[in-house]
Amino acid sequence: MNYQRGSGIPDETYCQTDTPPQSVRMSTDGSFKTCTGDSCLGNAGEGTATLAYGQAASVGPFNCRSEMSGVTCTVISGRGFTISSAGINSVG
To answer: Which stretches of sequence are listed as region Disordered (predicted)?
Structure first.
């Protein structure tokens, strides 16, 4: 999650799955863009945190919760997405 990290860094949250290869980026208004295929995956980098099942994280307007069924991220309005092995779906 990036929120007010500095000039040139967009306020957004980002999630990806390796199987299937897919990713999603969401802005502060809850709109999001998806990508599927190997070219969509980024290298998170060594030591990047992973949200464990049953855990939640919040930064600014973003709130994400990890469950066995997938990761759901929303903004204050309730808009957002769920990413899972079944795909990426809109919520709210």
So the answer is: 1-29
Angle at 87 between CA 82 and CA 88, to 5 degrees: 40
Q: What's the predicted TM-score (pTM) here?
A: 0.87
Tens of pLDDT, residue by residue over 3-41, are 778 888 889 999 999 899 999 999 999 999 999 999 988
Q: What are the residues facing 9 on neighbouring strands?
A: none
To the nearest 10°, report the CA torsion of 5, 10, 12, 14: -100
Euclidean distance between the first and the last CA atom of the chain, given in angstroms as a whole number: 20
Location of structure tokens 């390796």 = 18
Residue with tokens 């092995």: 85
